[in-house]
Write a structure and sequence with these properties.
The protein is an alpha/beta fold. The chain has 16 helices and 25 strands. A hairpin with a 5-residue loop joins strand 22 (427-429) and strand 23. The termini are far apart.
Length: 618
Amino acid sequence: MERSVFLIGVFFSFCVSAAALLTPNGMNYEVQALMDIKKSLIDPHQVLANWDENSVDPCGWSMIACSHDYLVITLAIPSQNLSGRLPRSIGNLTHLGSVLLQDNKISGPIPAELGKLPKLQELDLSDNLMTGQIPPSLSELKSLQYLRLNNNSLTGTIPAALGSMPQLKFLDLSYNNLSGPVPGLSAKTFNILGNPMICDTGKGCKGFGQMPLTFPQNTSQNPKPSGRPFGRNVALALGTSLGCICLLILGFGFLLWWKHKHNKQIFFDINEQQYQQVCLGNLRRFQFRELQIATHNFSSKNILGKGGFGNVYKGHLQDGTVVAVKRLKDGNNIGGDTQFQTEVEMISLAVHRNLLRLYGFCITPTERLLVYPYMSNGSVASRLKAKPSLDWGTRKRIALGAARGLLYLHEQCDPKIIHRDVKAANILLDDYYEAVVGDFGLAKLLDHHDSHVTTAVRGTVGHIAPEYLSTGQSSEKTDVFGFGILLLELITGQRALEFGKGANKKGAVLDWVKKIHQEKKLDMLVDKDLKNNYDRIELEEIAQVALLCMQYLPSHRPKMSEVVRMLEGDGLAEKWEASQKAEATRCRANEFSSSERYSDLTDDSSLLVPAMELSGPR
């Protein structure tokens, strides 16, 4: 009886929460608002093609990220050549935390309804064709931290209420047609350059064009001579001026000496609390000293992981935030400050529910560090070895989440990003065991000084696609191969090299899994910790997706968008049947098996040693 009452209560709560998301005509109000946005925008690249008004919820749509309650929290469509206007109904997405629409051709006024988004922290409409005035309603966004409206055609005055926004850290209104006085702004960093009609607050705005300047006035053409002779006055004035100049030079020299001495000690001076915090768009630039304190001087006790890019340390910032600090190897050889910063900001534009968000970075003459949120459940690789083991449902959810993250990098990000090292160790798990793809973009970040033709390989043995291992040339299909290996890791609970030993032949993992699949003995693959707690139909489907992803020729592998659809149960049967027909044709043509070709690219030791990362450009 009690169980029945409990189930009824759960069902009633679900119905109430579901009803709260519905409009009077029974449609999800977030779906309705997003469809209004789609209809108001011209989408030449069809990046919004899978937005469907008949969907129950929009959390599987591209360019959208949702909370764990399946509420839309991020709308990120940067650099997609969108045009048209933003509709007022964007204000109905009341759980939005980020709106990132920069670098498009969106025109018209900024909807005042954006001021109705109480949780909005980031609003970036920069580099568009927006016109009209800045809505005063934006000042009602009490959680807003980053506001970028630069490089538009906005007119009118800057609303005085923007100066009273409590959380605002970064404000960029540069290169518009704003006019009038500049109100007092509380943002730690703000930019109003490129607005020729702006004038200085408190000095009047009688004329525009530049900040008012004051000049000393000469009221008499023939001033009265003083009691001192003219020559003596000149000599006294020259002497005083020279003395002041000498004092200034000495003072300036002392300042330079002190600063030089201070900079030499900054590496060890961890007691000084004074530092300047600089925010760059959505990123924060950390001082090395702060990260040194946070990680207890990069103590070995705080190491979360080691890899080809460097070590990752757990850290606690002064405000209590727990972070993961990646200290890149060879920091003094990773390009100049400006180029590194540009690359980091490019990576930060990749915003998706299943991608690891970059908090900020640190640059010194010898160090390059990246700061990420701390993932409490570690990596998939570590969790597969831990107790209690991951259940089957969680493993499926991890596979789909990682696939969606890679899909965003490959097909929805501009420019697209190739990961080049997809493996269980680089898929992280948040508090709710949601898959988050980490380390994406680091290959581009570290290798921007290399030529586009690579002759060496960086990655992990057992996860590297054959064409990448032989030629050094990578593509998104390289990631697809690695994702196939990841699926096998989720099924078996083992690392690639461990389950590869079962092949009894070097590099024959693909043929080994094919043989087991053909003999309908897939139960042999399943992690023993799962016992019988898994769905055998789902097991076969995931194994088929893995085999499709691991095909020898890149052109035969599916795109990540196809992988996502197959994991969601759409199109796998057709894709698998076509693959089997194509393979039968190749066999009749007496082609070498995939294992024979792949074995030429590795050696016996690669299946006996622990997974190792290869050096060289990626």
